[in-house]
């Protein structure tokens, strides 16, 4: 049996530090509260705890990869994840697994 190990590259650069779960959740909450009218830097400055810029950007890249946010051309961060709407769509049979 042959095992093929594939490395998925989701980050644009080498990451020196990966964010902890509590940091990711804090950033998610800040983005959700921002109502998509703040830039990435503005959100970073308003975080309740200080986070290194590289850690913040790594978290944004992860959230964008996972489909929770979009980062616009002008660096505005938009929260797009809506699990309630997805459940309603599944109930109507519009999403097949």
State the helix count.
4
Q: Strand-residue fraction?
A: 5-15%
Question: Which class best fits the helix and strand makeup?
Answer: mainly alpha
Going by CATH, the homologous superfamily would be Winged helix-like DNA-binding domain superfamily/Winged helix DNA-binding domain
Low-confidence stretches: 3-8
Largest beta-sheet characterization: 2 strands, antiparallel
Count of all domains: 1
Q: How does CATH name the architecture? A: Orthogonal Bundle
Enumerate the strands of the largest sheet in spatial order, edge to edge or round the barrel: 1-2
What do these coordinates show?
The structure is a single chain. This protein has four helices and two strands; from the N terminus they run H-H-H-E-E-H. The protein has one domain (21-91): Arc Repressor Mutant, subunit A (Orthogonal Bundle). It has helices at residues 21-34, 40-46, 53-65, 83-91; strands at residues 69-71, 77-79. By secondary structure, the chain is mainly alpha-helical. A hairpin with a 5-residue loop joins strand 1 and strand 2 (77-79). It is globular, with a radius of gyration of 16 Å. Mean pLDDT is 83; it is low at 3-8. Helix content is 44%, strand content 6%. It has a two-stranded antiparallel sheet.
